[in-house]
């Protein structure tokens, strides 16, 4: 459902679950796909592309096969899409979290030292020398892209947009945050990547195990390998 009343804190979802039978898949999307000024990546059709690639009914059938019984509502796999690092759809606590990224690039010679980017960056990720920006601290940078928007001289620009992928987040009795795979994934690779991640989960899940528990048991490596193979183009920063 898309309405103009969504605030950044009121993401909307398809295939509501929690009551009734397992829906197979639930996708929650922040309002950035429509009209949020913080949007770091343009991916308005990503939820539809995921739904088409993953087929919720097929996932429900595969879950039933793996479980040996009718899956319950809590077996529904959850994907959350946030179009920027603000994470309004709570991508950290679902099976697959997708976070929009706009990776900045710096042409230090073009910096006039106006300071607009430094005021904008909430992560203190811009390295200053003699009043001018000389580097971007990639450990701190969340790839929100807002410094490039603020820069009046094109010293900071966006070199790439895509999504970060978090795997295995959940709430419940033993909550855990999703683990981030290395790199930024192009939008068009995400349906393949999500398919590979869910295939990996369904191939390895112990009986009744949530995806986050499988990641805890196996480690993130098999999931990262599956995702990067599916993306074909090696993700990079
Ligand atoms: S996650 Fe970012 S783009 Fe999406 S609604 Fe929140 S602030 Fe806007
Ligand atoms: S992209 Fe965002 S977090 Fe990274 S340096 Fe720019 S403003 Fe800071
Ligand atoms: S906004 Fe641009 S020109 Fe101004 S200090 Fe930052 S990088 Fe330099």
TrEMBL record:
A Pfam family matched in the record: NIR_SIR
Native species: Desulfobaculum xiamenense
UniProt GO molecular function: 4 iron, 4 sulfur cluster binding; heme binding; metal ion binding; oxidoreductase activity
InterPro entries xref list: 4Fe4S_Fe-S-bd, 4Fe4S_Fe_S_CS, NO2/SO3_Rdtase_4Fe4S_dom, NO2/SO3_Rdtase_4Fe4S_sf, PSI_iron-sulfur_center
Superkingdom of the source species: Bacteria
Keywords: 4Fe-4S, Iron, Iron-sulfur, Metal-binding
Family matches, as PANTHER family: PHOTOSYSTEM I IRON-SULFUR CENTER, PHOTOSYSTEM I IRON-SULFUR CENTER-RELATED
UniProt protein name: Dissimilatory sulfite reductase (Desulfoviridin) alpha/beta subunit
Domain 4Fe-4S ferredoxin-type: 102-130, 131-161
